[in-house]
Amino acid sequence: MTGRAGTGVRPAEPDEHRPAGRVAHIAHDPVPALAPAVGQVVATDRLGVSGKPAGKLGSIAGHHEIPRHALTLCCVHASDRPRNKARSQRRNITRAATCSVLCSTAHKTDAATGQHGDLLDLIRLNRGLNRLGDALGEARTFLGLPKRELPRAPARAGSSDAAPRLFALSRPIAGTLAETYLRDRGITAPLADVPTALRFHPACFYRAHDAAPREAWPALIAAVTDADGTITGVHRTWLDWDGAGKAPIATPRRALGNLLGNAVRFGKASDVMIAGEGIETMLSLRCVLPDMPMAAALSANHLTALILPLALRRLYIARDNAAAGRHAAICLRDRARAAGIEARMLWPVTNDFNADLRRFGADALLVRLRVQLTPEDAERFASDGIRPVASA
Predict the structure, then answer these.
(1) Contact 270, 293 (CB under 8 A)
(2) Does position 93 have pLDDT exceeding 50, yes or no?
(3) Is the pTM of this model over 0.85?
């Protein structure tokens, strides 16, 4: 081949290695390719299309359609070749390059100029696009192809995405080992209204430490949310295979994500709510106060830092009787009062309210709680008696 194109055709460098080049006038007269007469279009390699749809791509690059069986090269006029000979040997990308419209899967190069490119480079030039991704989008839109979603990499353990993904992969709690576990703890509260707070995962990964082998155990998964309901973390309670208790592992409870100031929430708090440490503690109270909004901060330290709703006017603090629990309750009470919120303590007889529930029963727990509420809240939240057990 003589004139505008050289006689040698060699593979070009990958896109990321091509420096920017000058823009040249692109001719519309295809000539036979020097590449083998059999192959796929370049777009197949980068766009995922071939055959007749690929032939149509010629028109958006400023070229007429090309039959499926034809392999052609489209040459540029040489009038705008770089004058600097050394520069012409750099094999730059070009927008000024001799480009293959349909060719074998590799890029083709004009040996006379060192310029090269492919169909997508022509589309990019013709449409004035600067990014390869934009050229790919233009080609796919022209062909009427659906937008391809790139597979998402798995979230790293501890990343901001890992917590909501784990919760989304879990299932409703009804009929699972998680429900068995809660019922075994004496919790009779209806679970139908907690799907946004509690779920079950049949094989949640666990490692005793970073170098330990990975294990899989069933787990109760609790969503940790901010005041707007956005999931910021999860709390995992790994369970034994019969659901009768926690898994026989070193640390059967662990949290993941951003817990500070956030909580596992049961009901949406407005003017009144109860805050405490553990999930089982809050669910025990929910057995007898099912309409009271509640928040489990998951630990004594996190209870002291709980962010209180702006509309809150009265806060009940379900205190644990351990030293850390007493200290945390006092700290939260003082914070609430400093913010102009009325704060009241709820006192268990034993170490916590789940132990009270299991030892004395729901009726006795309700009687004891009713006298610790204000008359207004006792009438509002503790006047309907105890609801029967119900599944999700």
Answers:
(1) yes
(2) no
(3) no
